[in-house]
Amino acid sequence: MERENSRDLHTILILDKNAQQFPWESFPILRGEAVSRLPSIAFLRERIKKGKSVVEDSMKSKDDMHKNKFIIDPKKTFYILNPSQDLVNTQKEFESWLLR
After folding, report:
1. Which terminal residue of the chain has fewer beta carbons within 10 Å of its beta carbon, N or C?
2. How crowded is the C-beta side of 32, counted as CA atoms within 13 Å?
3. The whole model's pTM is what?
4. H or E segment at 65?
5. Phi/psi at 63 (5° precision)
6. pLDDT band for position 48 (cuts 50, 70, 90)
């Protein structure tokens, strides 16, 4: 199956201490794909916010803004939030953001 615009696709792995030991990037389904590991969803959120502010600061026209816009398709996103139900503060911080 060939994906449209596969050069624009990027997989971000945010793994817990048990899952990070596996070589996910070497699994056949991810081999040859653009894959990054990040330490947390908070880190990802801050990177996106910083990237948006850099892009906004450098914008000269609406056409440029459209080209440089960061897009995360929620229909192609998967997350697990607080599976053990012990991260109450983390869940409060991210739950509304993830449910958009």
Report:
1. N
2. 3
3. 0.47
4. helix 62-67
5. -65, -40
6. confident
